[in-house]
Amino acid sequence: MIRVLKVAGLFTLLMGLRVVRAERPVFQYRSGHFSRRMTRTAPLEKGRHPWMFERSFHADKNDSIHVVALRAEFQPDENPLTTGSGLFDLSEPAEQRVDPPPHDRAYFEAQMRALAHYYRTVSRHRLTVTFSVPDPVLRLPDEMGGYNPATDPQSTERGLVRLFRDAVKAADSLGIGITSGDAVIVFHAGVGKDLDLGYDPTPRDIPSAFLDLEDLRSHLAEGDPGYAGIPVQGGSHRVREGIIVPETQSQEGYEIGLLGTLTLMFGFQLGLPALWDTDTGTSGIGRWGLMDQGSNNYFGLIPAWPCAWTRLYMGWDEAAETVWGVDLAVACSMAESAQRIIRVPINDHEYFLVENRQYDVNGDGITRGWDAAGVEVTFHPDGRLVSSVPFGVITRVEEYDYGLPGSGILIWHIDEDVISRKLPENRINSDREHRGVDLEEADGAKDIGYRYGLTDPGAGAELGVLHDAWFASNEVHKRVNRSDSVAFTPATYPRTASNSGADSHLHLTRFSERDTIMSFQVRNEWIRSGFPRDFGLGHVPFSPLMADINGSGIREVVVVTRGGMIFAWDESGHPLVNNGALGRTVNVAGDTVDIPAALLAVTGSSVVTEPAAADLNGDGFDEIVTATADGQLTGWTARDEDGDGFGDRVFQWQSSQDSITALLLYPAAGGYYPVLGTASGELIFLDPAAGIPLWTQNLGAAVSGLCMGVSGGLRILWAGTSAGSLFCYNGITGERLWNESVGSRPLWPPAAGLWPETGAGVAVCYEGGGAVFDIQGNRIGTLTHSVIPAGRPALGDVDGDGVPEVVLPGRDRLWAFNHNGSLCSEFPVPRLSWDTPPSSPILIDADGNGDLNIVAATQGGEVSAFSRRERVSGFPLSTGSETTLTPFAGDLDGDGLLELAAVSGRGSVFVWNLNADVSETASWAAWGKDAARTAFFAQPSEPAAPREDWMPSRGVYNYPNPVRDGRTFIRYRLEVDARVAIRIVDMAGMLVQRLEGPGRGQTENEVIWDVSRVDSGVYFCHVRAVSAKGEKQAVIKIAVIR
């Protein structure tokens, strides 16, 4: 006779004898810990993230875990607040049930066989679970309700620990060898308190739990850090952790398999973190994976495969790197040989994992299972279990994804920073808006984990629906995105942005229909092929360089670290030299692993200043020049004439153990000459060929920075000091031209440019301000705003007036000042401040529209770009980890277009293609302007012709207005030089104050009015300017509020 057991849908039908209405149950498990002892089944010398390096698993590696499964009964009771009598159900079933009694030793052995088969399958035979179920049944000293008072969470936690301890102690007293196993499971009589039914008729049932040493220590030893576990065998061994699960999960109205709960708890034992929100209990990945509601798919009988991240974390699968612009095949989880997971990088700690999940691999509409006696059971999509004879515990299933909400490609957004930060607390998905393992739901909604009401439009989608998967005919995705095709791009819902909101520029398109092997395509027109590249953790890098260090005519990307490592890649991301060097990194599980490193050279001592690069001797090879802590200045090339597998030294100079504090490569006849400053104030112009100084000066204080300039036939060198002095020298002869005390505070490295009327000039910044000097040492401008610099300034025409501005990174935003010190219009940017300082900026035409943009590394590992009014389209880009390193822009591959390189704080170098023409002279492309660190903006100023209205009234205003903080800036635009007088009167016409204002033409001018002694009210400000063109006046109102 065919037996049918229906467990799905809205009712349970048993042999036609009775109907019990019940909705699909949701499991609400305890928020606990996971094991730190058994977190790996891959070889320890191999990390869990295969994309970090080339590796293959040992095919014959088969890790084994032996489990001692104890059976524990309570003291008999008739407590209506618990399920059952406290004893195991040893009755003979009157009808077919899920996990039918008698729940004797054979029954629990069958449950363990089911557990072993599941993990052997999903680990691809890399994990073998063996077990023993010893006799006799243990009798605990208390009733079931005594172990769960259910008065508060703490009392429940304490009861669980007591239950586990009592079971272990009882087993030990009977001589049961608990320590012969790697793990302990306590099966207790009764039903688990794990179902969220919306009501709780038996609140004192026992929750299922994995208990670790922290739990035992907290409740058995009052948190004593010296407590090592439950003593057994006379104290010679300790039990440190274990699992508590019930004999069954079936209860009145529900037929539920125990396997789902058992596989989930055993996941904790293996070291798998929960993927639901352990703070609130809401779902994180729904029914799409083992470590959430997927553990109880098909009513606990068919737990889902672990999601792609979980399998990689445990070393049970490998991820293939993406290839741009071609159709990529991804096979379903059950496939044996084809690639099953593809990794698509976003930044240095975020990526997408793409996998193919199919709930019915063979397409027959059903799946099959077998009990321990080999009785076959077929599972049907409407919830029917069909068998010709009675069956017991189902120990094998052929398709563990049969209970999924649907089939297709799943795209997981992985954030390793979130995982690393929250993994120790088992909270990696505790923030619904920023999960560590997040499913990109193709239907455009973020339903999983959301709490909907019964009549809400999203009701029923909280645990996942079929349209969360990506496939060509996903009509919900098409409707939401108003598109004829299914695509995952920066412009779709959901979008491919990083978690900070930065644009990844990733386009995942051309999804095929649902099948055991599916395909899709990945495109990224911004990221350069071959990048990003890792050079390993433990390094503190300087800003990147682009230089032709192998003489190929094409530039390479170079990263120098403070520890003295020099890494170099060609334009395609290949190591410049192949010497088998390895770097070190730590994966998200804490394993230290090796990665290939593009190591060019090792300096032998820590590098103390920003490195530089230029062709020192005119041989067609750029040399990388480093200054190290031992006072050595060294030039490096990519040539390996000594055959040691590393780049050669081309020159070396020792500075008598004086620490080098500044470095510049000065262009002169025949090549470049290193100029360096030292901690003792020495300024040295060096001949690299002869290895001797051509001239030396002493500045009296540590040299804080250098820049050069050219004015007519005069070549200039400026140097700033830690004492606040600025020195100007003839760069060829070393003759001091002038020096000026700018203030008592250390100067940031200066920057030079060409301005109208004055020719070459120099801008310097210090804490609280800055100034601009002409070539004769005259101060031509003082910054009108007090700015705390966060890096060296850059020079360039960012407002399109033909004159370079001084662009300065402040503590929380970017500033731009005219050369007379007035604030440039539309600055600072952004309007809302950052939490961390930006890097020293570069100034390039990032979007190809002909205007200079400000580009800087900003908070959250972003590379941001601004015009004077808004963000540049396509930015910010993301490196991932926080960094204050200045990007480098240049033509890397010789195609006439800009590439942009940036380094993350985590040891990755990124290169993006920009759709913009190269303009070397009109750009400030690096820290210090260029690879030689000359810090000289050499483009001549070409100011626009003066307007006829030489003091436009709309250009006269004050800010802020009204004035609340004690001062306001009176601002006016002049097209020609003029004398400016300002008169401020009150409402009665009485004079309040006279001010004299600057009168520089073709720029904005500012005067500060101090209102600290002015009463509240409205005042009239008369601005009068007299020039060769006549006289102009303007009147503005200023409101003062005190």
Description:
The chain has 1042 residues and is mostly beta strands. It has five domains: 25-54 and 64-272, no CATH class; 273-357 and 403-525, no CATH class; 362-398, no CATH class; 533-937, 7 Propeller (Methylamine Dehydrogenase, Chain H); 953-1040, Immunoglobulin-like, CATH 2.60.40. It contains seven helices and 66 strands. The strands form 17 sheets. The protein has a seven-stranded antiparallel β-sheet with strand order 3-2-1-20-19-18-21. A hairpin with a 7-residue loop joins strand 24 and strand 25 (517-523). Helix 1 (105-122) packs across helix 4 and helix 2 packs across helix 3. The longest helix has 21 residues, at 153-173.
How many domains, as an integer? 5
- CATH topological fold name of the largest domain: Methylamine Dehydrogenase, Chain H
Beta-strand share of residues:
25-35%
**What is the CATH superfamily label of the largest domain?**
YVTN repeat-like/Quinoprotein amine dehydrogenase
**Sequence of strands across the biggest β-sheet:** 3-2-1-20-19-18-21
Radius of gyration: 36 Å
The tally of helices reads: 7
Principal-axis shape equals elongated
- Terminal-residue CA separation: 93 Å
CATH class of the largest domain: Mainly Beta
Low-confidence runs of at least 5 consecutive residues: 8-23, 39-61
Number of strands: 66
Brief digest:
The chain has 1042 residues and is mainly beta. Helices cover 8% and strands 34% of the residues.
